[in-house]
Amino acid sequence: MDKRATYADVGGHIHRFKAVASLLNIGENALRASVKESGIDVPRANALNPKAPAVQLYSIPKIFEVANYRRERHGLGLEGKKPVIIAVEIIKGGTAKTTTAAELTVHLQLQGLKVLAIDLDVQANLTHLMGYESDIQADELDKYDYLAPEAVVSETFLTVCRPYIEEAALTSALFPPSSLDIKRPYGEYGPALIPSDIFLGDLERDIVGARGPRETFFRRFFADSAAGKVPALKVSDYDVIVLDCPPHTSYITTNAIALADIIIAPVRMEAFSVKGLSKLIQEIHSLRMHYPNEGIDPELLVLPTYFTPNLQRNARMQATITNFHVTVAPIVIAQSEEFPKSLAFNMPLSLIKPRADGAKQYQQFATLIYDKAKAIAKAKAGG
Hints:
Elements: E1 14-15, H1 17-24, H2 28-38, E2 58-59, H3 60-74, E3 84-88, H4 97-110, E4 115-119, H5 125-129, H6 157-170, E5 192-194, H7 202-208, H8 217-226, E6 240-244, H9 251-259, E7 262-268, H10 271-290, E8 299-305, H11 312-322, E9 327-328, H12 338-343, H13 349-352, H14 357-380
Helix pairs in contact: 4-14, 6-7, 8-9
């Protein structure tokens, strides 16, 4: 039996032609041309069962391979060597923060960008949603005869940050580890993931002991990574980096906010969620005030989630959000039972049901973010 590299059965989800075109957000003729030009081998159903129709069957890794071809063929990547940093954050749990981070990661990769997702929450919800169980240890694999060693989460963002902090404290040279176990849950052409586990919480303490201002540690780390001083993590390899942040105030959260080019705040249509938005805005203003020369100026974009348009409460919450004088996305994510169902598969909804309403809404939102990221990347590159 072939062993899986993730807890999720990625290979068990097969899509037909129309669903793949929908997932890639292209026309059927464009998909047909891409597959023909690229020479990508897409099996047909009758190859295994002669009685089956001769329809093409696309695995999830194969879909990302087509997306990668389109990236190279049509130049869909972003300009420059500095990735656009997107932090998904709201000081409140239960607002679809992790769902938004996962869906955005998947759709931006499908639209032709190279995306790295970093799980910064010790709860590891993004790690789980992308197919990994952070509690499984290497010596427990014999209990899971279907899992390959790659399914074990052995390294997190702490792995690369801790040596960087320790060496910088001792010397002026930076000697972080030369490798990092970056996950590829959907194959080599899919998005990358730096997972999380319970020990990631130690990063909070390490940041306190780092040289320089605590709130801007990530900015220094990413600048050195972009300059090639962090061999284990070359952020210049990616167009976009998506940070799934903790739902509470911490040095990790503050650093992510200070680093971000775009902050996406999923706001559930309820009062407590809007209070979390108020706290987030205060954090942004505080960073700008205390570090006026750092260029901290993220674009804050509110994404309404769990939206039910016929409820008066939603209308009141939208009016309240408007009073904050922030940008509200023109797309809303409707309340749906499909999202919790997808959690049972340890995969984002869009990869399970590409034509579900929620998948389409996140695809539209990702297209909006793609356009914003393109403009930001051009400005960073001096264009």
